[in-house]
Amino acid sequence: MTWQHTYLTAKVFLRHYRHSPVQASAILVGIALAVTLLIGVKATNENAINSYSQATELLSQRASAHVSSNQSDTINQQVYFALSQAGIPSLGVLEGVAEGPSGHSIAISGNDLFAAMSLALTHSPPPDKKNPQSKLMPFSSDIPLQKLINGYPAILMSRSLADKLSPSGKVQLNGYQLEVIRVDDSAGLGNDIVADLSLLQPLLKQQGQLSYVALFPQYADQTKSQLIKAAKHALTAAGIAVSTLNFEADDNGASLGALTDSFHLNLKAMGMLAFLVGLFIAYNGVRYSLMKRHSLCIQLMQQGVGANHLMAALLLELIVLVIIGTIIGFIVGLQLSQWLQPMVSMTLEQLYGARLIPGNWQWQWFMQALALTLGAALFACLPMLLGLKRTPLAQGAYQRPRTQYYRKLHAKMLLTGFITLVISCTLMQFTEQYQYSLLLLGAVTIAIPLMLPQLLTWLIQLIEQSNPQGLLQYALAETRQIIAPLSLAMMAMLLAICANVSMNTLVGSFEITLKQWLESRLHAELYIKPSPQQIPQVQAYLQQDKNVTALYKQWRSDAVLTQRLVANTSINSDNSAHPQATFNQTQLHVPIALVSRDASSIEQTSSLKVHSIDFWQGFSQGSQVMISEPLAIKQQLNIGDKISVDRLNKPLTIGAVYYDYGNPTGEVLIGQRLWQASTLPATPISFAVNYQGELSQLQLQLKQHAGLNSSTMYSQKRIKQEAITIFTRTFSITLVLNSLTLIVAAIGLFSASTMLTQSRLAPFARLFAMGVSRGQLQFMALGQMLIMVLLTCLVAMPMGALLGYLVISKVTLQAFGWSIAMVWDWYSYAQVVLTAVLSCMLAVILPLYWQTRKPLISSLQQESQ
Amino acid sequence: MTLKLSQCLLKSFSAQRTRRSWHNQVLFCSLAMLLLSLLSGCDNAPNDSKDMGQIMGNSAQGYAKVVPNKPITFPQDHLAHNDFKQEWWYLTANLTTASGEAVGIQWTQFRIALSPPDSEPTMLIEQSQSSPASSKNKFPALHSQWQTRQVYMAHAALTSKTQHFNAEKWSRGNKHLAAVSSNPFTIFTQNWRWQSDNNDMFPAQLRVEQPEFGFQLQLDSQQPFQRQGDNGYSIKSADSAVASYYYSQPYINVSGTINRHGKSEIVTGKAWLDREWSSQFLTKAQQGWDWFSLRLNAQQTLMIFRLRGNNDAGHFYSARLMNADGHGSNINSKDQPNDIRMTPTQWQQTQTGRHPIAWHIQVTSANIDITTSALNSNSDMPLSVSYWEGPIQFSGSHQGEGYMELTGYQ
């Protein structure tokens, strides 16, 4: 019986929304937008993270271990043969770079395609595989194996990459015209280009060489270490020196996950920000619709509907709206992630070498989004509903002025916001982990909009001091009044602008820092990275060419940081080599790169962040080493600390930290003397030269005499160009998300001002009746909104700068290990402000146009509602 | 797996599929089909999709043909005949463990050519159009020892009354991965290897190692090889439309060890080798085959098979009675209709299909009238290509052991 009241009330509300659909759609739009961005980012992130643990060898299965050389970039294919002849399921893989038609480098991978595909067929994992289709996929009719294993000049690409790269179905690599075979995207090639070894080895001039051999378990429950042991045994039996090889167990994507962790967290934070902005809009919608129904609710209660039933109906309404909004947002969000994913995969591939495989959406995401949205909506709206419940019935349908209430509320919000801001910024100085910094950044992000309504009020009061007359005075006074109803939309706008300003600052600053760093890092005219077999030839040629005025060399080897010895006392740099210092030992397993260059290269190109007083002396003697900034920050290493590296037998003392942008792998740079005294490979892996004369002449000579192709030679200019392109891509996804957030905020503002103009029909009609012209009225409404937006932008600038500062000097530094000098990017700020103003204008003009076209009498009647 | 695979294939070709069901394919025909569709399905450009039947009909095109009166010579013909589409080295053995347990062993290496030898030269590297025509020296054709038209598939099985292990290996043809070579004669796919002492087939060591089972056998034979059919030219249908080159060695002495779940046992017994190569094995109407190798007594062995047509009248029967001294006599249903009778007496549903696991076999002219029974009814080979293959015993006019192979059942 009693539920009938709830049902009845719900029906009344339904009628209400049918009468004014704008209110319902405002709420739905808010929720849908929030969920769209949340799901868009979540799906993108989850798919990427899943890819790390599920990534297979190309067109094959996931390997359990990998064998590579610890001496050079490639291994002899005898390793593959020996393992195969010992019955260990294995796959030889060659990776390399070829020169594309316009001279740019194209990464290309190849394997024994027949083995890859038959491994996928006969060596599939246990039957409980989620996606049985993936097992059958490899022997798809898209792939003409009979041609490919016979050296046919064709390469495989996913359909989407081929559409981008080679619509003609042909591509030219290293001067050879190759046919492009399109493989369905579900094969998981991502952006990889694949060829059979029969083509790739000669194409890359790597006859007999492989990059690595992937190992697969011999039987179902064979552990990775058992497999590696069997492989070592087999190789030893075949007379291959195991000591020159690296055996690495697959870590289910853990290291890649760790490497990309900060990237994904940043994305997630952006997603949450957009979600927050969307919720603001939805909240604004709910509040507005309640305000409009205030008298209706009172009337219902006066007619005997219990307060609890009313509440139940309102809650029911909210839940239904949230569910519908979430469903819409979920569907659109998945679509959005389809659009974001190529961008993310590009970044991840370029920066971390991760390959993304197509993923599926999951029901859990929907449930999570629903729970989050519902929770947030209830949390935000319950106080409002309870307030309604407490309204005394006697108050009747008369709506009391709430000016007083808002004044208090805004003051309270300012205080809360200010305190939160101060506390967060203070705490931020002490954080060392980017996770915590990000959390505090979240607090700052919430604090900033809280202060907005009061700040806006103050600013308008400030303008009013200029004593404007007549309509202008009215307009300003009224602007102050509409701060309250518009505040939520303005807060959303503020957040979006702040985020934009901070991200633009970050990207702009990063680009400048990077350019400066590249300037100092690159000292030679031409950089050459030949394949290992070509090294002696190239070296011999460069040494005899009289026009080569300087020849620089670089050595590099993969290694593992095994131990960290942090100096116990807070010592100064000058007693870093002090023998009495005590150390805190920590065992580690961090993959790093050991690097060395010739002495003059090191001195000219290392831009040091900090160094000990006697550093250069210690470095040349081999008693001190340099480490890269990301390594120093992630492992919390300082000068004076010691580290142990598996490839070197004694601990190394850190004497300096150097800037290293865009390199996700930590580096330890050691002096040439130390390198040569160790068992590390003696041949350099790359050269850099200065040349007297035309650089293209030298390149041509190297092509002819040492068999190099252009993709192994980079001019300084080309490196700079490619570096900038790649690194800006790192942030492209963030910028896109930011723009989306701004769009969401603009839509929010649109819906808020639509509702606002609706509620202002009566005052406008009154003014019109008093003789103010339509044109003046429109101008006034537009002007009011413009003032609000401009003032919001005014607040947003310092706040955005603050956010930008925190993002640069805290989050990015801690997450990526890159120090960036903050630079103002006024041009992009102007762009953001312009975007905001334009979207606001649009948001106001349209409702204004609708409104002023209504007959005067119907507008005047609004008063009585 | 095969079923799923064929379903997948079915889907991809459903538009073009004609005439008959995929599921009635016979072992080697379906093997060729499987590979054809898997590996060469895209020989044709996407908009130039060939009719399935056309691919079938043309499957032997471009490959060498099996013709009569072409002498088989040893040891050359032990090696691979790459011009032919398919070929195999097939060993079955009936062995006894030290404790008296009967076990059977099968080892087969198949060679399949993925493209015919006279197909267009695949090393057709077009020079980039932008570079001048004179730059030929700058861009030499790419060559690699990885290039091959051949792939190998190897099967191995170990069967006892209660257990049946089986495994498969695939590899592209490559002298380090899978090959058949001389000096000394070797057949191998990865770690499964037939290793002769010299260029002849025997004496040899056969080694198969898998995680769950394996065997290492010493194979020896003093008897001459037996050329099947007309001096090695073995017809597979009454109208001689399809044929293969086929020779056997039914007298091989075996000793060695077998391994089951890490437990080794010494075994001794008799093995039988079949060598066969052709470019087309079955006519379109043939559904499958039932093949037997039977040791009738110390001096005589019988190879007998039935190729199943659409109906009873369409079956083709062929047999050869082989003496240890190298002589023998042929019987087939083309020349002597109704001389051979083969009747299933018991059917069993196994993992891969409903199989006739017991038979009544009569060869009137040779006074043979026996009934056979399987050592293990579930001797399926559920591999890329599925069939039934296992040791049998027989009794009646003769008593002894042998092997049976059943293909094309579902």
Describe this structure in words.
The complex is a heterodimer of chains A (865) and B (410). With 865 residues, chain A is an alpha+beta fold. Chain A is built from 28 helices and 21 strands. In chain A, helix 12 runs antiparallel to helix 13, helix 12 packs antiparallel against helix 24 and helix 14 runs antiparallel to helix 15. Chain A is elongated and about 95 Å long. The two termini of chain A are 31 Å apart. About 2% of the residues of chain A have low confidence. Chain B is built from 3 helices and 24 strands. Classes of the chains: A alpha+beta (865), B mainly beta (410). The interface between A and B is large, with 45 and 52 residues. Strand 7 of chain A pairs antiparallel with strand 3 of chain B.
Outline of this structure?
Chain A is of the alpha+beta class and 865 residues long. Chain A is 59% helix and 15% strand.
The greatest interface between two protein chains, and residues involved on each side, is:
A-B, 45 and 52 residues
Largest β-sheet summary of chain A:
6 strands, mixed
By DSSP (H or I, 4+ residues per run), the number of helices of chain B equals 3
Shape of chain A: elongated
Globular, elongated, flat, extended or rod-shaped: what is the shape of chain B? globular
Helix and strand sequence of chain B:
HHHEEEEEEEEEEEEEEEEEEEEEEEE
Q: Could you tell me the strand content of chain B as a percent range? A: over 45%
Secondary-structure-based class of chain A equals: alpha+beta
Strand content of chain A: 5-15%
The Cα radius of gyration of chain A reads: 33 Å
The assembly state of the depicted protein chains is heterodimer
> Please, how many helices of chain A?
28
Parts with pLDDT < 50 across at least 5 consecutive residues of chain B: 1-58, 121-138
Summarize model confidence as the mean pLDDT of chain A. Answer: 82
- Structural class, from secondary structure content of chain B? mainly beta
Computed over alpha carbons, the radius of gyration of chain B is 22 Å
Low-confidence stretches of chain A: 124-139
Helix content of chain B: under 10%
